[in-house]
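[User]
Protein folding is very new to me. Any chance you could explain this protein sequence and its structure tokens? I have pasted everything here:
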Amino acid sequence: MVKTPELVDSMVLDMDATEVAQLLKEKKLNSRQIVEIYIEHLNRINPSVNCLVENRFDEALREADSADCRLASEEAAGVLFGVPISIKEAFDVGGMKTTGGLLGRKDFVMDRDAEVVRKLRAEGAIILGKSNTPELCFCQETENKLYGRTNNPRDLHRTAGGSSGGEGALIAAGGAAAGLGSDIGGSIRFPGHFNGVVGFKSGKGQVSPEGSYPVVKQELQDRMLGIGPIAKSVRDARTIYNIVAKQKAPERKLESFTFNIIPDTDYPMADHTRKLLDSIHHKSSPDFNTEREIPPYFKDSTEIWQEIMSIDGASDARTEAFGGKAKNLYRSYLTERMNRKSEVHRYLSWALIGASLFKPSEKRLKKIEDFLQHGDHILENYLKERILIMPVYHKTAPRHGVVYREIFSIRKTFRQYLPYVAYANTWGLPSLTVPAGTDEKGMPIGIQLISRNGNEEALFQLGEWLEQNFQSYKRAIL
């Protein structure tokens, strides 16, 4: 069969980073050809998806030419050598802006790479550009005053999630071989689930946040932050995590683990998600130890997550949002709702209002610290050889604005809609999201796998088992 240029382009866009690296190694295509395919594709899809907010196409082409010279002379080194990737806007890339989606930071150009970016480039990765986020990465939907709204490439009327929504949408549409995101409240896993891509949130302290914006200054918030890959395959997630992590994931044998597939709870869960979990239980039971129980502290974790995010009324975030100027949050929110002339998006101002309402007292903070210290010890033992299997959200990607209304309500509806995602953040646990099914409209359903630090390899092995036995990544065609 003769492969037309159009067929070659489509094949490259469907490939994960591992396949692209192998293609280069075998010299079936060169790095410039691959980078050009991605650039052309991004130029075509970005007007409708709005996932890429700043590109470095000229630099990427020069780096590809340099990579090809080294490949020709057998000097190539690095597992991602010559492979085009994308980066969430929150990570510093030398010579590019880090704005956090804020109008007041629209001219902030960084002079050095974030630590995770440095590690990826040291393995030969070529950065195509940076992807959209909500302002200050402070919302689970991706929209801001500076760059606008990112759409889900599988249905442009639906949310791409957040805060790594631009990255999730870009990878879903095949805009790069792989990407990188961050997650303090589902920010990798929401986009993974909604867009149908693989996402991995690292556990507390496993990946350096140096050069990530905004800087997390509160110790309790820092334990909730995870940085990791957004990818087309679990094997890429493993590869990229092992590059950016402080140490590689230790070996684990999946056969020794018990799978705890969460049962029905008092929290919402769509029928298609419930049926998918039942199917996973049915399929895994003959070969693995399985159980169906509510894990420890499941009910408490969401409220604690909200309180931790509301420490000091999120004063650090407010300072960043308004450039150090004292602003009335309610006036800013109402101004934006009425005439859209506030400095910040209504999503951010309303989220900051919520943080001021849910601010924990010093006495309450001490109770939270004691609770977490005790819970960490309990979960360290509970998850020693156990993997939790649960949804990311109670339904597939809804229309724009729905997630925002469900989570940021003064009625505290976040307690109903965030338990599945808040658990891994509150306890600083690694979590892998894998697309494993679709709803009746063809929108992807991501399944979340959670365990303790040190069990990352077991999560990757189970993720690969899901890919083999259920659905896996398929590129969104626009």
